Amino acid sequence: MAKVIQTNITDENLIKETLQREGFSNIFTWTDRQGRRYPTHTHPNYEVRWVVDGILQIEENGEILELYPGDRMESHPNTPHSAYAKSTVTYVCGSR
């Protein structure tokens, strides 16, 4: 099950520094335009998505989560999920 934390942190550099300190790698910033959909897929690693700006909707295990600026979502490896950009959204990604 996804873990969502409301951090109120939207500073991209601070987010990246925090994830690096926590042992995440492959840290990068991603932007999707409003309406972008990702079909159900999985990732082989423990993943984090931390929203900088916009709204990202994730469906995981039949639950729909809406992530807003400052929200951090963590997912376990190989967990099926889909994503939808409710607005243009920028988020920081990392793996561990």
Rounded to the nearest angstrom, the radius of gyration is: 12 Å
What distance lies between the first and last C-alpha atoms, to the nearest angstrom? 17 Å
Major sheet size, sense and barrel closure: 5 strands, antiparallel
Number of domains: 1
Order of helices and strands: EHEEEEEEEE
Mean pLDDT: 96
Number of helical runs? 1
CATH superfamily: Jelly Rolls
Share in β-strands? over 45%
Low-confidence stretches: none
What proportion of the residues is helical, as a percent range?
10-25%
Architecture, CATH level 2?
Answer: Sandwich
Shape descriptor: globular
CATH class membership: Mainly Beta
Structural class: mainly beta
CATH topology-level fold name: Jelly Rolls
The number of E-state strands comes to 9
- Spatial sequence of strands, sheet with the most strands: 1-7-4-9-2
Descriptive overview:
The chain contains one helix and nine strands. With 96 residues, the chain is mostly beta strands. It has one domain (3-90): Jelly Rolls, CATH 2.60.120.10. The strands form two sheets. Strands 1-7-4-9-2 form a five-stranded antiparallel β-sheet, with helices on one face. A hairpin with a 2-residue loop joins strand 5 and strand 6. It is globular and about 30 Å long. The model has no long low-confidence stretch (mean pLDDT 96).
